[in-house]
Design brief:
It is a single chain. By secondary structure, this protein is of the alpha/beta class. It folds into four domains: about 130 residues, Response regulator (Rossmann fold), CATH 3.40.50; about 150 residues, 3-Layer(aba) Sandwich (Rossmann fold), CATH 3.40.50; about 70 residues, Helicase, Ruva Protein, domain 3 (Orthogonal Bundle), CATH 1.10.8.60; about 50 residues, Arc Repressor Mutant, subunit A (Orthogonal Bundle), CATH 1.10.10. The strands form four sheets. A five-stranded parallel beta sheet has the order 2-1-3-4-5, with helices on both faces. A five-stranded parallel beta sheet has the order 7-8-11-6-12. Strands 9-10 form a two-stranded antiparallel ribbon. It is elongated.
Length: about 475
Amino acid sequence: MNRGSVLVVDDDALFRAALVRYLEGESFAVVAEGDPAAALERLEQRTFDLVLTDLRMPGLDGIAFVRRVRALDPEAVCIVVTGFGNPERSVEALSAGAFWFIEKSYERIACLSPLVEKALEFRRLHGANRQLQRQLESRYGFDNIVGESEALRATIDMVRKVADSEATALVLGESGVGKELFARAIHYNSPRAARPFVAVNCGAIPEELLESELFGHVRGAFSGALRDRVGRFAAANGGTIFLDEIGDMSPKLQTKLLRVLQEREYEPVGSSRTERADVRVVAATNQNLPELIREKRFREDLYFRLCGVPIEVPSLRARREDVPLLVRHYIEVQRRSYPDIAGITDTALKRMTEYDWPGNVRELQGLVERLVVLRRSGWVDESDLPPSVAGQRLERPSVSIPREGIDCAALVAAYEEELILAALNATGWNKNRAAQLLGMKRTTLVEKLRVRNLTPPGGAPDLRTRNS
């Protein structure tokens, strides 16, 4: 079994032959050269899993040779064979890009196999990581953001400029416009692309847990903290942390985040140890932060820190010309699972373009998936569309006002309560789904339930939706 290909470069014919015999005996495919120039010619013709080179050679020493090899193939893994008593040169070889070094002696050859195996494993893992990195860069490249509208192109141009910098960015836009997609595009087109991208939804994690989630904690910091835990800022070290729904963050955490942005340091929960934060922060929200500042719910100084570069992602109704492109794109994605789907008719596409898409791209993607799953084959037509998208509207109730007048506020409140109860009953008191049906935020719905003291039928605890 061939364990990998190795190029041996050494001007000492006897030692070179000993290396070849040993490596071939360990099932490696070996090519040997005594001249580094000839070895470089071979490397121009093909790649090797590993290059094993002497340090001292006429014409081109091992360190210069390693640099030339790495220039030809940045993924190349090199081990340098050094003479005894050359620690400085060994360190220099590592700085030039060598994987490791070994002492040049016949006795040490027998210890070579484990090191070669580790070097080859490193190459395999590094290659897999680079392939994954290229896939991520391709997936979140600007060319893969679907749309040709002027509004979208202006946003992409802004993101291109921001990506090359270290500036903190604040991505703004309605729910469902794809704020995380743009945050990832910033990261994967930045100098930090090879480092982690860590996303945190600040609105989905309870306040009492969010601090530990962001900054980590030490054992015994609170009840249930049985061991040390690394926070998201530490996990994103060297890369980017994406703080989604930043408007939902509590004032206490806003203060800690402000310190991270100002001082680039923080303390894990329960610890007095200061940690450095080499992290780029990209935040996002669909809320009006200036309004939250006026209501004393968001720190003005934090807002100015986050808003280094504001990026406004346009709503789908502000770029209707992109709707046909998006619909066709998501249909093609679904055709991988449902190849009998032919496409979508012009009539259906026209109706979808006229629709306002309150849920933006997320709503459009979900609808296309649902249409394809239900249709299974043939053409998606206007008849397949839900009434709201097809253009049908609910009939307005007839209104008459008595001579003595009405209490408008009371009637509107009563009608609103009926609508809320109807949505909750239709969804089994699932507040998330009910809020979507009503076109309001879940927090708004919860507040209206609290004010009106509305509870599920029978007054039983709302077990099905207490975490929804």
